[in-house]
Amino acid sequence: MPHRPVLAIALVAAASFLYPSLAQAVDEKAVAEHFAAVGLAKFADTLEGARALDRAIDAFLSKPEEKTLDAARKAWIAARVPYMRTEVYRFGNPVVDDWEGKVNSWPLDEGLIDYVDESYGTESDENALFTANVIANKEIMIDGKPVDASTITPDLLANRLHNAGGVDANVATGYHAIEFLLWGQDLNGTGPGAGNRPYTDYDPKACTHGHCDRRATYLKAASSLLVSDLQDIVSKWQKGGEAARVITDDPKKGVAAILTGMGSLSYGELAGERMKLGVLLHDPEEEQDCFSDNTPASHLGDALGIREAYLGTYKTLDGREMKGPSLSDLVAEEDKTLDAEMRGKLDATIAAMEKITERAKSTEAYDQMIAEGNEEGNRVVLTAIDGLVSQTKTIERVIASLSLSGISLEGSDSLDNPAAVAQ
Questions:
Q1: Is residue 369 predicted with pLDDT exceeding 90?
Q2: Residue 405: per-residue pLDDT
Q3: Averaged over 293-318, what is the pLDDT?
Q4: How many CA atoms does the CB half-sphere of 124 hold within 13 Å?
Q5: Distance between CA atoms of 395 and 310, rounded to whole angstroms?
Q6: Which of 421, 164, 119, 104 lies closest to 289 in space, CA to CA?
């Protein structure tokens, strides 16, 4: 999502923090190094999830049927679990932030990729590639020039189609492109049901909607690219890697980056862009996992990642419990009451997010919750948004307690200027 840095904090350090090794139980260096180690573990788990998804896609394409399509969809949902826990590593770390757009850009104009329902429309003033449909067309025009799309490759997706024409909605790669290819459009509005793409869209013997071979090639190219992009970021989190060094080279700046990630994800990105905007507009397109209806699980994953960043905890996919020097330890040494407040706010937000996931399992999907006139559904979502906003205020107090300066947290018009969003 575009950055909207409207919530700024300019704190002047009252004193530099010096931690004598015998006097302090934990210091900034230990916190930063542990945070980087957890980051490596999280991105490594995310890579394993993508590899499992890639294998499930191979199985589906080799034998297109309901069973294998369902398995690929389940693998996509499983792959999102570790990824969402990494998003707190994005803000405050330009290496991760620059990379993130390759794998998690949204929303997307799906007409760039494949066929769409007539209700989608045929043109857009903002996007010349609104219905380019590269799966159906072996040549497309980008910026007035013909582009050869006769062979669909990861290179074509990443370097010619993704954000083509400088349009953010031209998302050709990553989780959400794959999600669209597995589920198809969700045409149910704020009614029940997710996308329902037939497996025959990939069956060369009983092909529906045409171009089944090219659709399969696109899906495989996107899946392979996701794996390679995650391999790249895992390498950057190895000791001495670019992403890790942002955190560990200067521990004080590393701690500031951790808090920037927590606050920006909590406030501007999750509470604002991913949640409040959808409630304001009552728009089912304004949910992150809109094709699969997996949004509640993704939002919960973000909230869990924020708490893990503060507590220095993580349980890996193979069951290893990671626990080490944490922000919580640093804060508790300065102000035990503030640490307890921060922990309580994080727990309250997760409880509110769990209410959303429980409702999604028992009552209605997220796009139904944010529908106009659904007072109870709106209330459940708004309660979680309020929790995120409240915990961000405490994050600001944590920043002040550690005398960190020059931190700017992401904002969102949805929270800071909702009248502008309504226009």
A1: yes
A2: 86
A3: 97
A4: 17
A5: 10
A6: 104
**Confidence band, pLDDT 50/70/90 cuts, at residue 191:** confident
Strands 313-315 and 321-323: antiparallel
pLDDT the model gives residue 422: 67
Question: Would the pLDDT of 256 be above 50?
Answer: yes
* Confidence category of residue 189, pLDDT binned at 50, 70, 90: confident
How far CA 182 is from CA of 55, 68, 77, 175, 223, in Å, comes to 14, 11, 11, 10, 11
Residue with tokens 């903002």: 126
| Mean model confidence pLDDT for the chain | 93
SS3 letters for the chain? Answer: CCCCCCEECCCCCCCCCCCCCCCCCCCHHHHHHHHHHHHHHHHHHHHHHHHHHHHHHHHHHHCCCHHHHHHHHHHHHHHHHHHHCCHHHCCCCHHHHHHHHHHHCCCCCHHHCCCCCHHHCCCCCCCCCCCCCCCCCCEEEECCEEEECCCCCHHHHHHHHCCHHHCCCCCCCCHHHHHHHHHCCCCCCCCCCCCCCCHHHHCCCCCCCCCHHHHHHHHHHHHHHHHHHHHHHHHHHCCCCHHHHHHHCCHHHHHHHHHHHHHHHHHHHHHHHHHHHHHHHCCCCCCCCCCCCCHHHHHHHHHHHHHHHHHCEEECCCCCEEECCCHHHHHHHHCHHHHHHHHHHHHHHHHHHHHHHHHHHHCCCHHHHCCCCCHHHHHHHHHHHHHHHHHHHHHHHHHHHCCCCCCEECCCHHHHCHHHHHC
Q: How far apart are CA 202 and CA 112, in angstroms?
A: 18
Q: Is the pTM of this model over 0.90?
A: yes
pLDDT of residue 112: 98
Confidence category of residue 423, pLDDT binned at 50, 70, 90: low
